[in-house]
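On clarity, I found the account of how folds are encoded harder to follow than it need be. What matters is that the chain and its backbone geometry are given together, residue for residue. For the editor and my fellow referees, an illustration may be useful. For illustration, here is how one protein appears when written out as sequence plus structure tokens:

___
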Amino acid sequence: MNNKLIQKFAERFSFDQDQLVDTLKATAFKVKDGVVSDAQMMALLIVADQFSLNPFTREIYAFPDKQNGIVPVVGVDGWSRIINQHPDFDGMEFRAAEKLIELPAARPCPEWMECVLYRKDRKHPTAIREYLDEVYREPFTGTSKDGRSYTVNGPWQTHTKRFLRHKSMIQAARLVFGFVGIYDADEAERILDGQAEVLATGTMMVPVSGGEASEDAKRMAAKLIARADKAGGAWQAALDYAAEHFQGADLTFVNAEIRKAQQAAPLPSGNRPTVSGPEALAQAKQTLRDSKNAEAG
């Protein structure tokens, strides 16, 4: 395990280093049965460190997935933190539709809500609209041991407007600030249920397994970072390429290196090409593939 990272968290939270991992395994993972591996624990710490989130206050936690990896989950307080601590954040506002709709078991709610995010380095704000019928989760239904059906209402039923507002804020944050590799609890549950949909460019699972990253992964991470930077910030293209060609510890390592480089990268200047739109993204991914093919040849 990465002792330096464990030591960093122990010092940050004034915690005994020897007990840190066991405590977080017991409190920062939503798991009924089974064992949380050291690799899964380290994957969570990497993400928590990247976004400066506190796993002890549930700003971030994780679901172990079926591939021995994790689905990193950031709570609403965590999303609020990473938005507010971004150096270019310059405020947000919310708008809502005048038309109210009522979905099964839900409270009356605006048809859509919109989050408008402002950046200090942009002339115009970005407005992201989320529609209730696309994100709403119906009550959980099941059958008891004696054969009787039952229904359990969740937060979408009791706090419909609030949860739609959260959705619009989170999606806006992803698109405006490029936050990748983290989910809200609702998305994580859909993923684990096998019903996941890509709701915004840049979201991905983080499969991990034990062991050290291979030399090939370390070498390719550096190449992907260099080419993503040269393409004007094609970080998602680099992450997509990594997901297609690596798995386990290799994928965890490459993703972490790309994210660190993305956070450290300067904003694109006026005389530097920027990536925008599906066509530019596809071109950047092709550039990364060409590099790999040339190397193999």
